[in-house]
Design a protein that fits this description.
The chain is of the alpha/beta class. The chain has helices spanning 27-40, 44-50, 53-56, 59-79, 94-101, 107-124, 140-153, 176-188, 209-220, 243-253, 260-269, 283-291, 303-313; strands at 5-9, 87-90, 130-136, 159-166, 169-175, 193-196, 231-232, 258-259, 274-277, 296-299. The strands form two sheets. A five-stranded parallel beta sheet has the order 7-2-1-9-10, sandwiched between helices. Strand 9, helix 12 and strand 10 (296-299) form a beta-alpha-beta unit. Helix 1 (27-40) packs antiparallel against helix 4 and helix 6 runs antiparallel to helix 9 (209-220).
Length: 314
Amino acid sequence: MSMKFAFVFPGQGSQSVGMMNGYMELPAIRETFVEASDVLGQDFWTMVCDGPADHLNLTVNTQPLMLTAGVAVYRSWLELGGSRPVLLAGHSLGEYTALVAGGALGFADALELVRFRAQEMQRSVPEGVGGMAAILGLEDSVIEAICHDVTAQNSQESLEAANYNSPGQVVIAGHKDAVQKGIEMAKEKGAKRAVMLPMSIPSHCGLMKPAAERMQQQLAQTTLRSPDIPVLHNVDVQTHNDADTIKAVLTSQLYRPVRWVDTIKVIAAEGVTHVVECGPGNVLTGLNKRIDRSLQYLSFSGSDAVSQAQAVLS
């Protein structure tokens, strides 16, 4: 059986101070961070090495940082002689990293876009108005019904399923009070856990529509081309070659759910044998293992892992 591998790129929530420490031997890492700092006029390398964590966790910093980290690790893989994956995907923000890796979007353009995306997301919902919570141990349909019920009780507040991360793990998003009610109802329905996430922005729900409108205008001025490697998109779990269609799915990605479970299922259906998490941390690998146990999973969590993968994936 021939080996086919896909790369997936992490999004917000995988960042931590010191997350690049394990990659110090790879020259492309520092070079990529210098490039990002030049584009956005900020010293990202010092921020990622020394923190402080609250700077790293500000959405306007996290989004360009995670993009840079993913691109840096991908470039390192290629520099070591690694071959190109057959398919790419990214979780939320990670979709932009996938488009850079796939050659659809220039790195400098992507940096400007994700910085703009972060600013607009933050601007759409003032601090303290929205929230997100992770619900563990309930069926998707039960969580969708809870969101529907909470919204029906108060038309001023909205609650939606935002991330279908793995079987039995769904993130909900909306107005903060609605999210609190959703947590209470989920516990009543027997959720194993229902906890608020440390996110100042309710991503992937209707509250992000104002940000999406401004993102659409920004994307209209950005050069995108057909990717060299197909990218599976969060919104419709399909690959697209047409630049205008890619811009449209990136716009709707802001207020529609991340269908990560379906993404991994499609990757498996394409005959992929190995899925590689390309970037710091192993959040996605943990989710992926719960979605499909028949695939082999690797995470590029440091330079040793990147080098060792050469032997596995060549």
